[in-house]
Specification:
about 270 residues, mainly alpha, about 0% strand, globular
């Protein structure tokens, strides 16, 4: 009688050394900086540092702006993802490429672009200033816009993928029963892709929470108004290394928790 070899053992035995060694080095390369952060964390004074007014202010502002940016992305991104997934129109590939540009664009360049549009002499900013007396740059609103600009592609990609994978027969059945397009969208389509929307929103929120380059370029670094957690880390590096480590540890913890919660949807193998 032949004993069955466990699947995990068979797969491990087939790994070539030429792949195993660089894979291990790659894993060490990615994990080692995180280990260094944990080793240098001032654990004995961590509770006191976490309750410092500057840390709490930056954390509160980061959570507020990231949440508002995510809400803005949901309002604008879901309809855009639906258009890309369900409507054929000329130039759809170009539109999709433009939407994903912020993923590869240097964040500082994104901040400069926002400044040229919403600045006092910008395309939209000059009109807002002259008509309503509203100035966007270097305000909390600028933080929200900068975070939404870099985070929205994550939501659109996730929702578009969910829409393409959803069974359209339910929507066709609703239309056959007399439901209008808006009713079908709100009562059939959105519930079908709700898990994809939730996953995209969480990724969007996490990206907004860690945004740095576009924020410091477009919104500046003013404590209590535009200084989010990444900007506070940057400032603390010049004056207090342990404070910078504590702030970095908070961002690392949030990132790990979010990725762990999304593991089954985004990281697991088929």
């Amino acid at each position: 009688m032949t004993r069955a070899v466990p699947t995990r053992t068979r797969r491990t035995g087939r790994i070539p050394i030429a792949l195993l060694v660089p894979a291990t080095l790659g894993m060490v390369f990615l994990v080692l900086p995180l280990v260094g952060l944990l080793v240098r964390t001032p654990w004995s004074t961590l509770p006191q540092r976490l309750t410092e007014p500057g840390v709490l202010t930056a954390l509160r502002l980061s959570v507020q702006t990231a949440s508002l940016a995510t809400l803005l992305c949901l309002v604008l991104g879901i309809p855009l993802a639906w258009l890309l997934a369900r409507v054929s129109f000329p130039g759809r590939r170009v539109v999709r490429a433009l939407i994903t540009v912020p993923l590869v664009l240097p964040p500082v360049v994104g901040g400069v672009a926002l400044l040229l549009v919403f600045g006092r002499r910008g395309l939209v900013g000059s009109w807002l200033d002259s008509t309503f007396g509203v100035t966007v740059p270097f305000t909390t609103t600028a933080v929200v816009l900068a975070e939404a600009f870099v985070a929205m592609p994550f939501l659109i990609i996730a929702v578009e993928g969910a829409l393409r994978g959803a069974d359209t027969r339910y929507e066709e059945a609703a239309a056959t029963l007399g439901a209008g397009r808006w009713t079908t969208f709100t009562h059939v389509t959105l519930p079908l892709v709700a898990p994809g929307i939730a996953a995209g929103a969480v990724l969007c929120w996490a990206r907004a929470l860690g945004e740095f380059g576009a924020t410091i370029t477009f919104a500046g670094n003013y404590p209590g108004r535009t200084q989010t957690m990444p900007l506070a880390v940057y400032l603390a590096l010049e004056t207090d290394l342990e404070a910078a480590i504590v702030l970095s540890l908070i961002l690392l913890t949030v990132s790990v928790v979010i990725l762990a919660c999304l593991r089954d949807r985004w990281i697991s193998s088929p």
